[in-house]
Amino acid sequence: MIRISGDRVEVSGPMTLRGATALLAEGEAAIASDASVFDLAAVTEMDSSCLAVVFAWMRAAKAAGKSLCLLNPPQSLLSLAAVYDVADLLPQH
Questions:
Q1: 44 backbone dihedrals φ, ψ, rounded to 5°
Q2: 44 in Cβ contact with 53 (< 8 Å)
Q3: Strands (E), the chain
Q4: What's the pTM value of the predicted model, to 2 decimals?
Q5: Residues 68 and 61 sit within 8 Å (Cβ to Cβ)
C-alpha cells in the first residue's frame, strides 16, 4: 500500500509478486504528482519483484526528469540487490 504525503511516499505491507502491478501503478502515479522520496520502513515482506518495482519507479522518475530517493530500505532488499549485483544502482540517501 502507498500513502502520499507531499513529496514523500510511504510504502507499507508486502512488496511481493502478488501486489507488484498495483504498487508499480501507485508509485508511478505518485511520481507523476511530484513525489520523489519513497520510505520503505513499513514494508513487511518482499521478494525479487520488489527490486523490479523499485527499478521501474526509478525509470518513471527519470522519464519525468526527476530523481528518486529510497529511505529505510529493508535489509532483505539490500541483500537481494547484492546477490544480483545491483546494490550500487539503488538510490539510497
A1: -100, -25
A2: no
A3: 2-5, 8-15, 37-46, 69-71
A4: 0.93
A5: yes
